[in-house]
Amino acid sequence: MATIDEELGQLERDIRQLKIEYDQYFGGGRKRPPTEISWRIELVIKRYGERGGDLKFAQRFRYNNLTQTYAKYKDIFRKRLQQKEEGRSQRHFGAAAKAIEEERARNSAQAAEPLSPALVDADTDAPAQSEPVTFRVVCTDPEREADKVEQLYQAFLRAKEKAGEETAKLTPAGFKEFVRKKTKDLQEKQKCRSVEYVVELVSGQVKLKALVKS
Predict the structure, then answer these.
(1) 102 assigned to some structural domain
(2) 3-class state of residue 137 by DSSP
(3) Is 195 helix (H, G, I), strand (E, B) or coil?
(4) pLDDT band at 111 (very low <50, low <70, confident <90, very high)
(5) Is it the case that residue 48 has pLDDT exceeding 50?
(6) Is residue 114 within 8 Å of 174, Cβ to Cβ?
(7) How many structural domains comprise the chain?
(8) pTM of the model
(9) Angle of helix 35-50 relative to helix 57-86, nearest 10 degrees?
């Protein structure tokens, strides 16, 4: 029997596959919309929605992100289906898809080393942001704060996915080791007790900012 983490992983893959198959359908590569995979996703979402108490904090955080992503896609697909049925032009969707693919290609070409997220260091609290902060958490001892590091990893991963950035080289183990080393390094160099990590958009790209805390 699959574990909760395995089922959430499959749910994430199904949502990605659903988007691919819908893009194929709207582009003329499929004769019918992918209703079977939609049904499978709905089933898993409903099951864990009814047994939310069985999920750990990090699992619930991941589940909520996946359901939000699916709801966003579902709304987009509904509108596109309606337009397709009404015979309205879909040219603007093709242009949007092309823009997304071009952005992904640029991000892929500029990808950093496998275990090093794009990071911006700061000695003090961040100034006012022109773009929204996606997530923030304060770490003192990452080795004993596994839940915090997992939440940070999931937030960073989701933000990059939503921005259309490459995530294939980002792994949980590598990210946790990165946070551990970065926290220890800043604590030693800046003589601080804690480090606040902030996931945010900087000039349209997802960044992980490390802020020294007293």
Answers:
(1) no
(2) strand
(3) strand
(4) very low
(5) yes
(6) yes
(7) 2
(8) 0.45
(9) 150
Length of the chain as a residue count: 214
Q: Which residue has the tokens 């590091």?
A: 149
Give the range of the structural domain holding residue 185, as residue numbers without chain letter.
119-213
C-beta separation of 193 from 187 below 8 A? yes
Distances (CA, A) of 1 to 6, 10, 66: 10, 13, 21
Does one domain contain both 73 and 128?
no
Q: What is the DSSP string of 40-55?
A: HHHHHHHHHHHTGGGS
Give me 119's structure tokens: 């990071």
Residue 18's Cβ-count burial label (10 Å; 0-12, 13-18, 19+) is buried
Query: Please, what's the b/e burial string for 112-143 (b: 16 or more CB within 10 A of its CB; e: otherwise)?
Result: eeeeebbeeeeeeeeeeeeeeebbebebeebe
